């Protein structure tokens, strides 16, 4: 279970958010939303431990994540704005490298299979730099299908995806939640989940869309 | 842990193979700087023999600096660094893998090429041998120490200049003992003492630099 207690983040002299607290338990999805610049990405990076919060702490299974960095990292899958793909590596190579770094041993034919499932048939062995934005996102998201981590933190996973890929990703998320996994994501669209529990958290002071 | 270490090395070597221009830049820089001196000074063999260790070492130092900028920058830009920070292995192990791969493509070629360049300076076989040995021990130390600077200046504007200011002073001991060993050997004093010091620097750098680099990367990536 992920527990956030009284989290505050100050960047420069600007307070992005303060007093944030929530829990995400098994089979729950947390949908973070808020206007541009409200600190969604910062919050997600703080949840991963990439940013040290100014105050408060993030606990994983009742233990602060600072004190169990590697154990926590083994149970976490984070996909940020940047896809983390190497331009000069092919889709398959990118996927294999990402999985091996995460401590998974994935046979190569399994990687081919997963990329085909992500709708990249025929593009598996092209270098990532020639793929379109959406295709690159699909390669990055292919990790979800191989991951055994219970906690997924996804920053804007739907951006750049076409309708079919959005549906596929929603299915993958629903399956993960149904298995008892946890998901935290930011997106500006509604997340449709039939099973499991969807929690929502709004950051920022403006209603969405007002300028 | 060893798996991740190997994965990083294989990935970086593969990337270097696919983008050879970056690697060749460093190598050509070294070759050209070293070759400029005999051309500029003229065929004064005594002078050339005398300055050879210093020239080789300064050129190796600058070539190593030149390659540093790219060490973490591309990973930082495309998000691969974030994934490394969140990998369930000690970051210092991954850093060591990256530095080793970096040395294999930017440092080792300099070592292998140095005998050929030594001919321009009329160096004896024994001196060339010592030169290769000092470069073999010294260039990994340069890469390790340089990695700290590269990590500290990651994402800063004008990082290239700053990294030189940070790292060059730390390179001085390596330069002194590296060039000193060759000079001592050539003058018949025996460079064993210098070589031991160089080895000690390498060991110390291999132990401490990955930890320092890992800490610096966590700060820079915030």
UniProtKB/TrEMBL annotation, chain A:
Record bears the keyword Secreted: no
**Which UniProt keyword terms apply here?**
ATP-binding, Cytochrome c-type biogenesis, Membrane, Nucleotide-binding, Translocase, Transport
Pfam families associated with the record: ABC_tran
Return the protein name: Cytochrome c biogenesis heme-transporting ATPase CcmA
A GO molecular function for this record? ATP binding
Keyword Nucleotide-binding carried by entry: yes
Q: Which InterPro entries match?
A: AAA+_ATPase (IPR003593), ABC_transporter-like_ATP-bd (IPR003439), ABC_transporter-like_CS (IPR017871), ABC_transptr_haem_export_CcmA (IPR005895), P-loop_NTPase (IPR027417)
What's a single GO BP term from this record? cytochrome complex assembly
Cited PANTHER family: ABC TRANSPORTER I FAMILY MEMBER 1
Domain ABC transporter stretches:
2-211
Q: Which domain of life is it from?
A: Bacteria
Q: Which Gene3D superfamilies match?
A: P-loop containing nucleotide triphosphate hydrolases
């Amino acid at each position: 279970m992920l527990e956030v207690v009284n989290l505050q983040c100050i960047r420069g002299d600007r307070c992005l958010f303060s007093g944030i607290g929530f829990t995400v338990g098994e089979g729950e999805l947390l949908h973070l939303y808020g206007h541009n610049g409200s600190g969604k990405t910062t919050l997600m990076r703080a949840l991963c431990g990439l940013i040290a919060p100014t105050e408060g702490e993030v606990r994983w299974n009742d233990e602060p994540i600072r004190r169990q960095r590697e154990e926590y990292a083994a149970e976490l899958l984070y996909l940020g704005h940047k896809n983390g793909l190497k331009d000069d590596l092919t889709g398959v190579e990118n996927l294999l490298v990402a999985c091996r770094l995460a401590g998974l041993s994935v046979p190569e034919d399994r990687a081919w299979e997963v990329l085909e499932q992500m709708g990249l048939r025929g593009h598996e062995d092209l270098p990532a730099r020639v793929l379109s934005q959406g295709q690159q996102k699909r390669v990055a998201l292919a990790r979800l299908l191989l991951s055994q981590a219970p906690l997924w933190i996804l920053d804007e996973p739907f951006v750049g995806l076409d309708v079919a890929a959005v549906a596929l990703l929603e299915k993958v998320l629903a399956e993960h939640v149904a298995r008892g996994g946890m998901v935290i994501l930011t997106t500006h669209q509604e997340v449709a989940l039939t099973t499991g529990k969807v929690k929502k958290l709004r950051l920022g002071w403006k209603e969405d869309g007002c300028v | 842990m060893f798996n991740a270490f190997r994965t990083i090395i294989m990935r970086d070597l593969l990337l270097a193979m696919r983008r050879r221009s970056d690697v060749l830049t460093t190598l050509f820089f070294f070759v050209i700087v070293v070759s400029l001196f005999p051309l500029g000074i003229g065929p004064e063999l005594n002078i050339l023999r005398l300055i050879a260790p210093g020239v080789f070492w300064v050129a190796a130092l600058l070539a190593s600096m030149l390659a540093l900028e790219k060490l973490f920058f591309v990973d930082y830009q495309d998000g691969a660094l974030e994934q490394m920070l969140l990998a369930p292995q000690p970051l210092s192990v991954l850093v060591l893998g990256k530095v080793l791969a970096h040395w294999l493509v930017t440092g080792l070629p300099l070592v292998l090429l140095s005998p050929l360049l030594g001919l321009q300076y009329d160096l004896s076989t024994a001196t060339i041998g010592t030169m290769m040995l000092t470069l073999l021990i010294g260039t990994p130390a340069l890469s390790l120490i340089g990695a700290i600077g590269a990590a500290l200046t990651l994402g800063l504007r004008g990082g290239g200049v700053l990294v030189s200011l940070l790292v060059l002073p730390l390179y001085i001991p390596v330069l002194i003992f590296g060039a000193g060993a060759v000079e001592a050997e050539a003058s018949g004093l025996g460079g064993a003492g210098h070589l031991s010091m160089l080895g000690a620097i390498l060991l110390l750098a291999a132990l401490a630099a990955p930890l320092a680099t890992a800490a610096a990367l966590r700060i820079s990536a915030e």
